[in-house]
Amino acid sequence: MARLEGLWSDALQRSGGPFLFGAFSAADAFYAPVCMRLRTYRLPLSSTARGYLGRIEGLASVQRWVAEALQEAHFVPEDEPYRSSR
Predict the structure, then answer these.
(1) Which of 45, 64, 66, 81 could join 49 via S-S bond, C-beta 3.0 to 4.6 A?
(2) Dihedral sign of CA atoms 1, 24, 40, 75 in order
């Protein structure tokens, strides 16, 4: 976590934000799933990391991605054993 936060903090400071390299880029798209995991697991984050995560979550494309994922109804039982046990 410290390494990840350091990478984000350095990039945001150098670029001036709001995303890692200023404007939204492939780097931000790469980290979008990481942001979702951090939120899901409620890991403690610095204020800089929380701000970045909030900006990623606030993107219309990310909101659409999450909404569509929540509507997914097809699951492969072997890939999601927690669903099979219910």
Answers:
(1) 45
(2) negative
Whole-angstrom distance, CA of residue 9 vs CA of residue 48: 7
What pTM was estimated for this model as a whole? 0.82
Structural domain for 60, as ranges: 2-84
pLDDT per residue over 7-26, tens digit each? 999 999 999 999 999 999 99
Buried b (16+ CB within 10 A) or exposed e, 35-60: bbebbeeeeebeeebeebbebbeeee
Between CA 20 and CA 26 the distance in angstroms is 10
As for how many domains the chain has, the answer is 1
